[in-house]
Amino acid sequence: MKLNVTDCAGRLMANPSEESVDVVIDRVDSKFQDHSDRFRIVNKDFSRQYFHFYAERLSSMKELLLPRINQKWGNDIPVKTLADLKEDSTDRCIIVGTLFKHQELKPSILKEISEENQLVPLPPRSEFTHDEDQLILEDELQRIKLLGDLSPHSVITGVVCAVLGAEHEGGKFRVEEYCFPTPCGPSRPLTPPAEDRYIVLVSGLDLAGSADVLFPFELLVDWVSGWLGDVGEQKNQALVSRILFAGNSIRCKSANRGAALQHVSEGLDQSNTLDAVKTLDDFLEQLSSNIPVDIMPGEFDPSNCTLPQQPLHCCMFPKAAAFKSLHSSPNPYDFEVDGRRIIGTAGQPVDDIAAFTRISDRLEILQRTLEWGHLAPSSPDTLRCYPFSDTDPFIIKELPDVYFVGNQPSYQSKIFRGDDGKEVRLICIPKFYLTKTCVVLNLRNLECHTMTFGEPTSEDMEVEK
């Protein structure tokens, strides 16, 4: 692909005193491979129960846990099931199971019933933790209440873990230590680029709901396309090999999804949504003619509401779809580009964990999901997902190079180091309609920085907080 550096007459004025010349800058080529087939659902069957989903998660992650148990606690302490625990026995042992949080404030179907019958509804909440929340560990056959150092406010229902301790009087298990199935480095070595190579990460455009996002977005598109800056700046822009839109490009609301869908059904914002899709198609056409583009669906985009969200249909973008460089991807998204393995979501799992725990830092939540070895541990308990029967596609079996989450209140990033020394770049991508900011990642050394194309929307930022 080419970056044509010209003036409005089709020429670049290299120097006003010199003859006008045309300068053509080659954009770097990138090697790309999609690993998201496990998130694409071909034959849909919603008649199944979620028991099989949880059972498969426990079975698969137990295999990942056993090597870590031996590494942390050795082979002297036996690994038992809850059925093996004997009454009045205080022997120390290890139990592997799935955590379940008993929460008084967890949303209930009674709320929906009260609204349907015009009764007094429960007060709306954004956080659902309570001082009386309790942790329960479930294995294949039984469950037991947990006591000890493992706080119910630091984990979420659906996390698989191993606990070391002994049975306490009253049929409870006192936890001394615990261990999560944090994945190790990749089994197949990858070769990162020897020279600078960048990808741009964007999320939360909200083209249907934010009138002031169009000009900053146009600046972003022009910058990536190579129409801004001098020749030196455009040579740097030519090192950008890919741009990724991580969800909520059409709509990005703080209200719940049900309210948004209700408004659409009432015809209040159908025209805005259609106009936003057409606008996005125009911008994607410009981008796709210059650079490979990945676009993921988000919580409020026109896609299925359950995880994994399926790719946005190409018929939504008739202009941009004419280019093979446009790649509609699922959410979560797992891919490899220029020797780097990258995986991430549009934000729903992190937002859900923030609501059901007392972990307020979004970057810490992102790191916790990596330590737990699962992209969306709270599904299907409090986060809707497809009822898989023989697999759990959200399990992280190997550490990626980059792990991102979209649609976050602010930009955050750090390096996570696994036990084997593997480094993972964690990135919280901010909502563009609030911050006017995208993230630029260097695939050579995993360093990243932000690019801002306007003033942040201060009033909306306060509401978001």
From TrEMBL:
Q: Report the InterPro entries cross-referenced here.
A: DNA_pol_a/d/e_bsu, DNA_pol_D_N, DNA_pol_delta/II_ssu, PolD2_C
Q: Does the keyword Nucleus apply?
A: yes
The family annotation for this protein states:
Belongs to the DNA polymerase delta/II small subunit family.
Domain named DNA polymerase alpha/delta/epsilon subunit B: which ranges? 199-411
Localization recorded for this chain is: Nucleus
List the protein's name: DNA polymerase delta subunit 2
User: What Gene3D superfamilies does the annotation carry?
Assistant: 2.40.50.430, 3.60.21.50
Q: Name one GO cellular component term.
A: delta DNA polymerase complex
The residues that cross the membrane are: none
Provide the GO biological process annotations: DNA strand elongation involved in DNA replication; mitotic DNA replication
- Residues forming the DNA polymerase delta subunit OB-fold domain are 49-178
* Alphabetically ordered keywords of this record: DNA replication, Nucleus
A Pfam family cross-referenced in the UniProt record is DNA_pol_E_B
Principal localisation: nucleus
Recorded GO terms, molecular function?
DNA binding
